[in-house]
Each structure stands twice: as C-alpha cells, then as structure tokens.
Amino acid sequence: MRDDAIGFLLKAGTSARDCAEVAAWWAGYRDIVRVWRNPMDRAIVAGFSADRVGWAFASGYQAALHALFPGAPEDRICALCVTEEAGNTPKAIQTTLADRKLSGAKKWTTLGPDGALFFVAAKTGESQGRPEIRIVKAGSGQPGIQVELMPATKFVPEVPHARLKFENVAIADEALLPGDGYEQYVRPFRTVEDLHVHGAILAYLVREARRLQWPQTWIERMLSVLFAMERLASEDPSSPSTHLALAGAFAASAELLRESESYWEKAGSDPAAARWARDRDLLKVAGGIREQRTKRAWERLTPAG
Is residue 73 part of a domain? Predict the structure, then answer.
C-alpha cells in the first residue's frame, strides 16, 4: 500500500530534476498521474517534485481540471477557457455556440500553446435577461481553432499562455457538457483551482524547506495547512463553510510565507531563492476575489438580526 500524499512529503528525496520546458514537466507529471489517482494527491506530490513554482502551479492547475472534469483525458494537456477581452463574468463572455458551431475568442488560456483539449465557456442565448453559458470541449487540432502564444508573464514565465480564436468550430453533441456552464463549472473552479494550485505550491515549499534545512516547526505548521487543504478538496466547493475554512488555511499559509522570507535570504545565491523572489506574487493573484468570496460566505452563514 502506498503512502498518503502528506507522508510522501516527509519520506521522498529532496532533489528535483531540472526542468526548463513544458515537455519535460509534462512527462514527469504523467508519471505521477499513473501512480496517484486522487487529484489533490497529484497536486501535492507533483508540487513537491517540481524544481520551481511554475511547474507546481501547472501541476495544480491540471489536477484541478481533473477534479472538476473527472472524465478529462489524462494523456492530454487540458485548459479551461473563460476569460475574454471584457473579463470572465457571464456578461463578458461573447464566445457563442449556435447550431453546434463555436465562434469567438479567449485569452490568458493557461498552457494554451501546448493544450490539446479546451473546455470553453460559450454563450448559447439569454434567459430572463441573463446570458446562458455552456461548457463545450474542443480539441486543438480541430478546423477553425487558432492558437497564438501570449507574452510571458512576470512570474512563472515558463508556463505559457495563449489567445484562442474559434471560427465556426464544429461541436459534436457529446462535446457539450450538461448543466449551467457558469454555475456548475466556472464558479466552483475558482475554489477548486485555489485548493489544488496552493496545495501544489505549498508542497513545493516543503521540499525546499527540507532541502535547505529550515526549522522543523515551520515544516510541521505547513503540513497542517496542507492536511487541511487536502481534506477541503473533498468538500463541496460551493459551500460557504468550505470557503471560510479555506480562508483560514490561506491566512495560516500567508503567515508561514512571511516567515520563510528570512530563510530564503539565508539561501544566498541558491537558484531557487531567486526564482522564489520572482514567482512568489503568483499566490496573490485573485486575492480580491477570495476576499469577496469569504465576505459572502460570512453573510450566508450569519443569522439575520
């Protein structure tokens, strides 16, 4: 019987294979997928095994997609495509699906240049003045799909993003996912992604902490945060209680990250220290959205009066 993912963090070796490109990361991630079947376990183990934050993020992102879409293929890089020029709210989504033809454009598609299967949020009409959004699956090789590499981001620049254009892309009936695309997939993915991406990055930090011999008490506290996230990944991602517990886990991890800065300074010229200084702001992305999510959770759970 294999160890659980948390146990793996303490028993596995602390060396990581140097990995500069998507192809090398993907080969290693697929090896992990063959052994670790639970998406959160994959995120934690792959994050620990990564030599930099970028590949921990990419691993957590893929794991989150498989948590949201359990039937997604494991031998193809996947991406959720929501954001457009006007944003990622239902009203901002102008990509359309009409007569089983997909047309429109997306941007900031994570791993898009290497993506093989896209889960695309598209408008199918309106109901009571609100856009109706569905999720459709489209393969990168289908006629009518254009993939354009976007400029590298200032943090985790190894992870590419793409603009996608869809021009009358034929969508088969089985490629149209059931249910409200926004409420059933896009909205909960924000929480699912938070859990898996943060879990992967925090596991990466545990490996570095062991390698660089940071205090055991720091590692113990980080393991407690990871244990909480691992358990929360099995809860309803739309539940306000899940959101409040996750906010507490994020607060605990933020304190640990602040403490880690002095440990990174002692690492001196270690390449990992320079990469961390460059990439650490990734964890602040969507911080405002998380604050609003926590505020709404308190409002939903606090008795009136």
Answer: no
Per-residue pLDDT band at 256 (split at 50, 70, 90): very high
Residues 278-291: tens digit of each pLDDT: 999 999 998 999 99
Whether the predicted pLDDT of 170 surpasses 90: yes
**CB-based contacts of 191, cutoff 8 Å, min separation 6:** 237, 238, 242, 243, 246, 293
Specify the pairing of strand 78-81 against strand 117-127. Answer: parallel
Asked whether residue 88 falls in the same domain as residue 188, the answer is no
Position 292 in a domain: yes
Does 61 lie in the same domain as 22?
A: yes
Same domain, residue pair 27 and 96 = no
Mean pLDDT score, 145-165: 97
CB 51 within 8 A of CB 271: no
Residues of the domain holding 128: 78-176
pLDDT number for residue 1: 31
Does residue 222 belong to any structural domain of this protein?
yes
Q: Do 62 and 89 belong to one domain?
A: no
Q: Which of 79, 54, 49, 76 is nearest to 65 (CA)?
A: 79
State the Cα angle at 250 between 39 and 109, rounded to 5°: 55
Q: Are residues 289 and 198 in the same domain?
A: yes
pLDDT > 90? residue 305? no
Q: Does the predicted model carry a pTM greater than 0.85?
A: yes
Mark whether 105 and 18 lie in a shared domain.
Answer: no
* Of the residues 176, 198, 228, the one at which a domain ends: 176
β pairing state of 145-149 and 130-139: unpaired
CA 197 centroid distance within chain: 5
